[in-house]
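Good morning C.,

I know you're traveling, so I'll keep this short. The sequence:
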Amino acid sequence: MDKETTVFKVNQRVVYPSQGVGVINEIVDKKYLGNGELSGKIVKHYRIYLEVSDMVVTVPVPSAEKLGIRAIVSAEAAQKALDSLSIDNGPVTSDWKLRFQQNMELLKKGSVDDIANIVRCLYQRSKVKELPIQERKLYDNAKKLLIDEISFALGKDASVIENMIHAKLEPLGASVQKKAVQNNFDDEDDDEDFSTDGESGSDADDSDDDADDADDADDSDDGSDENDDDDDED
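The tokens, ready to paste straight into the viewer:
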């Protein structure tokens, strides 16, 4: 792709993986802050307002694809993701740390199908056993991301989409819960915080921001900047 070609337009809504739906406020020429052949050169940047966090991020046009920034899905794709919430993909692993890592990877990828998968997985698991606090936060975050994108894609209020999501989830959840009761389900899901590699439970809150930290790191490498109010001329 031509480094000066802008895929998105001003006032277009886009999805920033793990951050949510945003709108491109403007496209500006600005010094590239990342590494590589573009370092220090003037290139076009998107300035994206993220509504959920009330924050503006500045993303170099050449880096947008690598960061996973994409257009909101079509109404057809949004409905497909919504319908997938009622599909039974089999038992969810009882190892919450493995679940958390797998779902964080999906969150970073950020497709609407990935986000729907997280919501379905964690809702289904919650009907078997209460989720650890980090997974509850991940579930809430993923559900908010899913509601926002689908509401824009289908042109419906967020409250309507939230009700539609629960309507899709509840039958499967009830079925999973019934099976667990019938089988006297009692697994050994470890609800303690990550404590491997010498880390203590007190560091668990750091994991809540894994997606944000990953994006911050990508932003640094790719010349992106958050809350950028600097002058565009150097």
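Safe travels,
E.
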